[in-house]
From TrEMBL:
Official protein name in the record: Endoplasmic reticulum transmembrane protein
Taxonomic lineage: Eukaryota, Viridiplantae, Streptophyta, Embryophyta, Tracheophyta
Cellular component GO terms, alphabetical: endoplasmic reticulum membrane
PANTHER family per record: BCR-ASSOCIATED PROTEIN, BAP (PTHR12701), ENDOPLASMIC RETICULUM TRANSMEMBRANE PROTEIN (PTHR12701:SF12)
Record field: transmembrane: 6-24, 45-63, 93-114
Function: May play a role in anterograde transport of membrane proteins from the endoplasmic reticulum to the Golgi.
Species this protein is from: Nepenthes gracilis
InterPro entries for the chain: BAP29/BAP31 (IPR008417)
């Protein structure tokens, strides 16, 4: 199952980089190309949502079927393995939340940047008509 988490990590990283590039000031020359690339990638990145739901169900299933290790019923190595499993689960849940949050941010920021570009073009047309 490690491959799924690597893929999700790369997807979240790519989304974060695109959000960062769209919001950085001073990249006006590249902005049109970034907007076009980001708009074309939004649909394929939408697959992150059902993928995250699948991984969330996997976490839940592992949580429900995990043997409990409380008190004196387990050895120190079993207790350590149990604690590591809990930490991995928490890390993976954070990764799922980050991937979904970055997708939502990317979608929202792209929509705002497109709207801003359209409004700037409208202002330029109004200026040219008034001259």
């Amino acid at each position: 199952m490690a491959l799924e988490w690597v893929v999700l990590g790369y997807a979240a990283g790519a989304e974060a980089i695109m959000v960062l590039l769209l919001t950085l000031p001073g990249l006006d020359g590249l902005r049109k190309g970034l907007i076009a690339v980001t708009r074309n990638l939004l649909k394929p990145f939408l697959s992150v949502v059902p993928f995250c739901l699948f991984l969330l169900m996997d976490i839940y299933w592992k949580y429900e079927t995990r043997p409990s290790c409380q008190g004196d019923t387990c050895t120190p190595s079993e207790h350590l393995r149990h604690q590591k499993s809990i930490m991995k689960t928490q890390r993976n849940a954070l990764l799922i939340a980050a991937a979904l949050l970055f997708y939502w941010l990317l979608y929202s920021v792209t929509a705002l940047v497109v709207k801003l570009e359209q409004l700037n073009q409208r202002i330029e047309r109004l200026k040219s008509h008034s001259d």
